[in-house]
Amino acid sequence: MTPPEDSNNNNLTSISLKEPEIKPDKVEDIASQGLGDRQNSQEDDQDIVPDEVEMSIFEHLEELRVRIFHSLIAAVLGIISCFIVVKPIVKFLEVPAQGVKFLQLAPGEYFFVTIKVAAYSGLLLTSPFMLYQIVKFVLPGLTIRERKFLRPIFLGSTVLFGLGLVFAYLAIVPAALKFFIGYGSEVVEQAWSIEKYFEFVLLLMFSTALAFQVPILQLLLGIVGIVTSQQMLSSWKYVLLGAVVLGAVLTPSTDPLTQSLLGGAVVALYFAGSFVVKLIGK
Predict the structure, then answer these.
(1) Measured between alpha carbons, how far is 160 from 209 in angstroms, rounded to an integer?
(2) How far out from the chain centre does Cα 92 lie?
(3) Cα torsion 271, 277, 280, 281: sign
(4) How far apart are CA 2 and CA 213, in angstroms?
(5) CA 47 to CA 148: how far, in whole Å?
(6) From CA 262, how far away is CA 207, in angstroms rounded?
(7) pTM of the predicted model, to two decimals?
(8) Of 218, 221, 259, 258, which is closest to residue 240 (Cα–Cα)?
(9) How far apart are CA 122 and CA 76, in angstroms?
(10) How far apart are CA 196 and CA 184, in angstroms?
(11) DSSP three-state, residue 173
């Protein structure tokens, strides 16, 4: 006799243990989600203020007072130092006016001119230190992302200001003086007031140096997202018109050559600034 078959054998089903199948697209989604989380975390880290310290309004005012006091002390020391050696500075600024005789038309005119020249020179000499004091004041409130642009802006502003002074001394001032000397050479003798001459030269040099800050202004507008590089480049017609107006306003002379030199420099700097804004992805 054969043993009876177990009736439950027919109902048994084979159970196999298998790992859950993950589709490739699910893997990509998980990986991209993890990468996105890391990128978002890194972006959040860039918006952190590392040196944030809670300060009252009176503490902020006290720090501002200290920064201003240090800047004033540096400016006074710079002006005194330049006043000690002011005669070589005056002779250096007289070089572009070859063939012109300078006159002192009032008592003490040359003395006040030397004070004015020493003041401009001292402020120029100590301007990096004063900018440093401004940076130290605003630095604790800046995020990591903003601090990355602080050093290029600081160095770029200083370099462009110096280039503006050099460009004015070597190109704009000689061109303007040549125009005025040649225009009336057959009619009047070139004998100028030394005070009026230095007012003309110093104003022209510093206005040119300020005009050279155009790329820095563009970079700041691009960083905060107010204007993009495409918008800057698409507005080139208005830039040409603005450069003409800026050249006419900033230059104390009325000759077209000086205005054209300054306006052309502003246009070139504007396009250079637009290119820099495009390089940083703005």
Answers:
(1) 7
(2) 28
(3) negative
(4) 106
(5) 11
(6) 10
(7) 0.70
(8) 259
(9) 8
(10) 17
(11) helix
Which tokens sit at 210? 């300020």
Q: Outline where DSSP puts E strands in 88-203.
A: 101-103, 191-193
Give the DSSP letter of residue 106.
S
Task: Going residue by residue through the chain, which has 282 residues, state the pLDDT in tens, using 9 for 90 and above.
Answer: 445 444 444 444 444 444 555 555 554 555 455 544 554 555 455 555 555 556 667 777 888 888 899 999 999 999 999 999 999 999 999 888 877 888 888 888 899 999 999 999 998 888 888 888 887 877 776 667 667 777 788 888 888 888 989 988 888 888 888 877 777 667 777 788 888 889 888 888 888 888 888 888 888 877 777 777 787 788 777 878 877 777 776 665 566 777 777 778 888 888 888 888 788 767
Task: Report how far apart, in Å, the C-alpha atoms of 240 and of each of 168, 172, 208, 228, 269 are.
Answer: 20, 19, 17, 18, 12
Instruction: Supply 118's token pair.
Output: 């020493």
Q: What are phi and psi of 141, to 5 degrees?
A: -95, 5
Is residue 221 within 8 Å of residue 240, measured between CB atoms? no
Residues near 141 by beta carbon (within 8 Å), at least 6 away in sequence: 49, 52
